[in-house]
Amino acid sequence: MRIAVVGGGLVGVATARHLAELFEKSNRVAGEQSGHNSGVIHAGIGYPPGSLKARLCVQGAQYLYAFCSSEAGQQVPIRRAGKYIVARNETEAQRLTELASNATSNGVQGLELLDGVPLPSVRAVRSLYSPNTGVIDYPALAQALVEDTKARLGARFILHLSSAVPLRALEPDAVAHPQWASAARAWHTAWDLVMVCVGGSTRPTSQMRILPIKGQYFELTCRCNTTVGAWRRYPFAGVHFTPSVDGRRVWVGPTATLFGWPPLHDPGFWRLVGRHWRFVVGQIRQEYVPLSLWRSLRELVPDLQPQDLRRSFYGIRAQALTRDGVLLNDFHFERNQNIVHVRNAPSPAATSCMAIAEYVVTRFSLDQHSENDP
Ligand SMILES: Cc1cc2nc3c(=O)[nH]c(=O)nc-3n(C[C@H](O)[C@H](O)[C@H](O)COP(=O)(O)OP(=O)(O)OC[C@H]3O[C@@H](n4cnc5c(N)ncnc54)[C@H](O)[C@@H]3O)c2cc1C
């Protein structure tokens, strides 16, 4: 079977292991989201049971740990650091119990609900401990996956770096478009399956567009060795302390603010802002007013001082926004003939990359009818 993958982030690199040619527009793999994130291997705790995120995250984490303990992945820095999700009051404590039962439905193993938290500097009435949450060097993982694919497939795997593919030619209507028809036909006939996983470059459809959401990190000048997160209402935000793989550094964040110029003509964007404006304002303050971030962190770590925080790197999430102004929560794939578009692969897609690859290749190569998922 001839498979082409467009986009050399973690999803593309993992998919290319299933016998493929990989096209990446920049001169290295994992240069966008896959190389600018929290580096967390999520255990699969908070995702809705039955969702693709729940299933592929739990499975993907197992695949990552297995790959990194194999010979091919043994150079990848990885650590099962564990994570405490903490509740600061009784209302949050009740939600932690619900979260624990959600996680159990998702098949997450080894969770413990604790009174308080066994970290002297953290204030909490209750905590949920996840021993299988980990930290990893994702760019090193991407490189190891590429090397493993080269070793296993030899000349059958070709990595085309600095090769930007014209994405317009891969859209369902391109064959009927005078400008794109011949390029579109070439892609349809040359490959049995084309997987387009281009993150923030994903083209808008009549149903959704990509909203670039910036996640700013701050570095802590003091130490902690495990991941700590507060219970959170929004899937991608909330106070988080994440250690680096070597345990020498601790990141706080990421925040969630719009990156670039807002899509002012998009009614969906205004619906989103109208519904969540308090959250939006709060995130802008946390990113640009250091004292505001420090105040929210102090609820968790009372001894933290403003000078303990230093602005660090940022990443840009590719998050799908529907025309109704809803942030699409689950992973979303669309297929037209032999071309599969990954339209939404936000966190935990790095954790899930090997499971997503297996899912897409087995599901979409089986029959040739056009369908969307889910
Ligand atoms: C701030 C932040 C924190 C996160 N934290 C975590 C975490 O801790 N754990 C976790 O599991 N997930 C996390 N994520 C999510 C995770 O990083 C992404 O879901 C994942 O990396 C998506 O991988 P991808 O391959 O789909 O996209 P990307 O990594 O964005 O890769 C897309 C690739 O496509 C290439 N491309 C674009 N256009 C073209 C073209 N025309 N032709 C060829 N190539 C093209 C780009 O150059 C890029 O390399 C985080 C994300 C962010 C931004």
Give me a quick take on this structure.
This protein has 374 residues and is of the alpha+beta class.
Description:
44% of the residues are buried. Helix 1 runs parallel beside helix 4, helix 1 packs across helix 8 and helix 6 crosses helix 7. Strands 5, 6, 7, 11, 12, 13, 14, 15 and 16 form a nine-stranded mixed β-sheet that branches. The protein is 30% helix and 24% strand. It has one domain: D-Amino Acid Oxidase, subunit A, domain 2 (D-Amino Acid Oxidase, Chain A, domain 2). It has 374 residues and is of the alpha+beta class. It binds flavin-adenine dinucleotide. Its EC number is 1.1.99.2. Pfam families: DAO.
CATH superfamily descriptor = D-Amino Acid Oxidase, subunit A, domain 2
Strand content: 15-25%
Given helix and strand content, the structural type is alpha+beta
Name the bound molecules: flavin-adenine dinucleotide
CATH architecture: 2-Layer Sandwich
Helix/strand order, N-terminal first: EHEEHEEHEEEHEHEEEEEEHHEEEHE
Shape: globular
Radius of gyration: 21 Å
The total domain count is 1
Poorly predicted spans? 231-236, 368-374
Under the CATH scheme, which class?
Alpha Beta
Care to count the β-strands?
Answer: 19
CATH topology type: D-Amino Acid Oxidase, Chain A, domain 2
| SS field, number of helical segments | 8
How would you sum up the major sheet? 9 strands, mixed
Report helical residue fraction.
25-40%
Question: Please, what is the average pLDDT?
Answer: 91
Distance between the termini: 25 Å
